[in-house]
Amino acid sequence: MEVYKIDITSWTASFRYPNLISGVQPTLEVPPISTILGLINAAAGFYLEHKNLELGYYFEYEMEGEDLETIYQISSKYGKPTNNAKSNVINRKFLFNNFLRIYTTDKNIVDYLSQPYFPILLGRMNDLATVTNISQREILDKIEFATEIRGQVIPFKFHLPGQIQALPQYFTNDFPRKNIGTEPFSIISHKVKTFGTSVTAYRDILPNGKEVDIFFHQLSFEN
Amino acid sequence: MIENNQLEINWLTHPTGDSFADIGGFVIEYLQKKKPDKSILELIEEVTNIYVKKWDNNLHSFFLNSTITHNSNKGQKGINKTIAFYKGLFDGKDAEDGYCRITGQKGKVFQGTRDNHIMSGSATLINFHHGFESGIRLSKEALIRIFFVPLGVEQLGDKVAVLTSNNEGITRHFVQRNVDNNFRDIASGISKSIQRSEFSNPANALFEYANQCIENVKTVTFDEDTGRSKTQGTTLNLFHFTNFGASPTINLITLPASVFAFYAYCIREHKKEWQSFIFRQYSNSKFKNAQFDDVSKSWFNNKEEVDYSTFKVWRNSVFEALLNGNGQIIRKAFLAHSKSRILNFKIIEQYQINIQNMDKRTLTKIKELADFIVNDRSDDEIKKSMTRLNGSKSSNGLRYFLLKLADKNYKDGNDEPLFSIDEYVEYLFPDGTYWNEIRDLLLIAIYQKLHETNKKIEVELIENESEI
After folding, report:
1. pTM here?
2. Which candidate among B136, B191, B256, B428 keeps its CA 20 to 30 Å from the CA of A222?
3. Domain A2-66+90-219 falls in which CATH fold?
4. Contact by Cβ (8 Å): B258, A192
5. Closest partner residue to B121 among A22, A180, A223, by Cβ?
6. Which of B109, B126, B145 is the mutation pick for testing A, counting most A CBs within 10 A?
7. In this structure, are residues B111 and B135 in contact, taking their beta carbons and an 8 Å threshold?
8. At what angle are helices B317-324 and B257-269 packed, to 10 degrees?
C-alpha cells in the first residue's frame, strides 16, 4: 500500500472516555478515530465528508500524569443555561510527550496538514500539537496475521488484548453535533509486546527503529 | 456510514464496548435464559421489586436521585415511577431522533444522566454536554441495560467493581456468578444490597479474579483439548466507581495480558516458590512484627497466627507494583527474597522478558556471569564479589566490577572472554535498561546459584535505596 505519513507531536494530550462525565477524567491511551478526523478537519478549516477513506494511525506517549483542573459548572433552568456558574476542581489525567503518525492515501489530507487552517490539538484546547514531518509517498508491506499491533484502536471483533471501549468514529456537522459510527474497539497501548492476531495490517518502521503493523480503518459516513 | 444490521442484533444484550452497558446486557441475557417466559418489562418489574423491597432502595452508588433512590420514592411509589419510566421508553416518551452514544444505533434516543445512567453527568449542569444538551443521548436499550447493572457487579470496599475482559466468556462468567449469588441471598432472605466482595482493595481483587480464571473457572478459559486454561492474550479491566452524591469518582485499573500470562506461568509452573514469595509481600500495619511461616503458610506474631483466608485482603506491594508497572519494587522484592530462599530464576526471566521487555540474551549473559562468580570459587572469594557488586553505587561502579571480572577471567587462563565487546554494549548496558537493574539481577542469579549448590555465604548486603 502506498501512503503518506504525517508525524505530529505534542507536550500534552488527553482523550476522554466518551461517557464518563462526572468526577475524575481518565484518558484513553490512544485517541479514537473521531479525534483524528477532527484534527484533520481543523487543519482543513472545514468539515470533510468522508466516503471510502482509508485511515491508519499510531500513537505513543512517554508518561501519564494527573492534573488538578478548575472547571466551571453552568446550571440550567428549563433546559436553558443561566448566568450561574460555580467553580469546582476535578482530577484529569493527561499524557506527556506524545507522538502521532497518521497514514493516508489521500493527498488532500497531506495538503491540509502541511498548512493547518486552525491550530491542531490532541485533546483539549491547550493540548496544542505540531506537524513535525510529512513523508513522500511510501510503500508499506502487507502483513497477514499481524504481530506488531500497538498504539492503535482496533475493532473489537478481533478480540485483541486491551481496554475495550465504545468509541465514536466521527461527529455530524449539525448542532448539537452527534456521534456517528460508534462501535466497540480494543485500545492497544504502544507499550504492549508482540502478540499473534488475525488482523491484516501494513508494516512500518517508527522513528525509534521499532516495527509496527498499522491497521487501516475503512471509513464512510452518510448522515 | 457503515450501519450495523439492526434486525440481526439484539441491542439489549449485544456487546457494545461500554463496560456498564455490557454488564447490564449480560445480566439481561442470563435472566432471559433463566426465565424465558418473561418479557423485558416483566424482568424490569421483577428487578425493581428487588431494588425497592429487598434492597431498600440502596442503589446510591449507581443512580443519583432516581425513581429508586430519591427519598421521595420509597416503597410502591418508587416501583410505580420506575416501571412507568421504562414503559415510557417503549412508547417513545420524550424521545428525539439521534444516535445512541453507546450502541451507535440511529433512532429514538433519550436523556441519559446520573439518575438513569452511571457517571454521565448531571442534567442541570449542562455545559458538560454537546450543545448544552441536558445529558447524553442514549437508546432505550442502553438505558434498560444500565438498570440491570447492580445485579451483575459487587461492592469492593467503598465503591462498586465492574469487571470486564476482552474475553467475553470471562465477563459473562463473573456477571452470572454475581447474579446467582444475589438471587441465592435474596431467596434466603439475607440480601440487603448488592453482593459484597471479601476484598476491599482493587489490586488484590483483580489478581483473585485472574486466579479464578487460571485455576478454577474451567467453564470460561478451560480448553478440553489441551487440558489447560487459555491464559494468553487475556486482559482484565476493573472500573472501580461510585456515582454517589457530590463526589462521584472512578478509577480504571487494568491487568494487562502480559501480567496475566506471567501470573498464570508462576501459578502453574512454580506454584510453591511463587506462593512462598508472594505471600511474604502481604502486609498489615495492624499486625506488627509478623513473620511468615512457610510450612503452615501463615503469618504469626507473639499474639496470633493468621492464614491465607485472613491475610489475602492485606495490601500486597508486588500486586500493586505489577499493576502500576513499578519494576523497581518488584526487582527489590525478588532480591530480598532470593537472599534467604530459593526463587527459581525462571520466574525472574519470565518477568524481565515478558513484562520489562528485556532481551533474553541479557539474562543468559547474567547467568553466565553468576556461574563464573560462584563456580570453583572459595566462599571468601564469592563473598568479596557479592559485597563489591552490591556496593556499586553508579554505572561506573558496575562497569569497574565487570571489567575486574573480565580481567580475572583472563588471568585465570580461560580461552574464551567472559563477554565480548558486543555483548557488553548490547546486553549488559543496553538502551532502556538501568545499570542497577543489571546489578540486582546479577545478585539474584548469584543467590539462585548458591541455593542450587547448597553454599552458605554469610554476607551482609546494604539496602540500596531508590537509585536511578
Report:
1. 0.91
2. B136
3. Alpha-Beta Plaits (3.30.70)
4. yes
5. A22
6. B126
7. yes
8. 140
Q: Pairing mode, if any, of strands B154-156 and B195-196?
A: parallel
Domain regions of chain B by residue span: 19-155, 358-467
Q: CB of A160 within 8 Å of any CB in chain B? A: yes
Chain A residues touching B254 at Cβ < 8 A: 163
pLDDT, one tens digit per residue, over A30-88 is 999 999 999 999 999 999 999 999 999 999 999 999 999 999 999 998 888 899 999 99
Q: What percent of chain B lies above the pLDDT cut of 90?
A: 67
Give the pLDDT mean for B35-42: 96
Three cell numbers, residue B201: 482493595
Q: Which three cell numbers, joined as nine digits, stand for A34?
A: 473521531
B164 vs A contacts (CB less than 8 Å): 164
Rounded distance, CA B161 to CA B167, Å? 18
For the stretch B378-413, pLDDT in tens is 889 999 999 999 888 888 899 999 999 999 999 888
**Using CB atoms and an 8 Å cut-off, which of residues 396-455 of chain B contact chain A?**
none
Is the Cβ–Cβ distance between A2 and A137 less than 8 Å?
yes
Residue whose grid cell is 434516543: B109
Name the grid cell of A172.
455530524
Q: Determine the residue of chain B that is closest to A53 in CA distance.
A: B1
**CB of A209 within 8 Å of any CB in chain B?**
no
Q: How many CA atoms lie within 13 A of A184 on its CB side?
A: 21
Is B282 strand, coil or helix? strand
Q: Is the Cβ pair A166, B18 closer than 8 Å?
A: yes
Question: How many angstroms away from the CA of A80 is the closest CA of chain B?
Answer: 8
Contacts of B154 (CB under 8 A, 6+ apart): B160, B161, B178, B194, B195, B196, B197
Mean pLDDT, residues B11-23 taken together: 96
Q: Which of A22, A157, A221 to mutate to test the interface with B (most CBs of B within 10 A)?
A: A22
Q: Which one, of B349, B456, B441, B431, lies nearest residue B402 by Cα? A: B441
Interior CA angle at B424 toward B419 and B425, to 5°? 150
How much is the pLDDT for B317?
96
* pLDDT for position A121: 97
CB contact under 8 A, A182 and B15: no
Q: Which cell is B191 given?
A: 440480601
Q: What is the pLDDT of residues B319-351, one digit of tens each?
A: 999 999 999 999 999 999 998 888 899 999 999
For B114, the closest chain A residue by CA position comes to A22
Please answer yes or no on whether A26 and B234 come within 8 Å at the CB atom.
no
Nearest to A190 by CA among A169, A208, A166: A208
Hey, which residues 74-113 in chain A have their CB within 8 Å of chain B? 74-76, 79-81
Q: What is the mean pLDDT of residues B94-98?
A: 93
**B243 touching chain A per CB within 8 A:** yes
**Residue-wise pLDDT tens digits, B165-218:** 999 999 999 999 999 999 999 999 999 999 999 999 999 999 999 998 887 665
**pLDDT recorded at residue B219:** 55
pLDDT tens string A160-208: 999 999 999 999 999 999 999 999 999 999 999 888 899 999 999 999 9
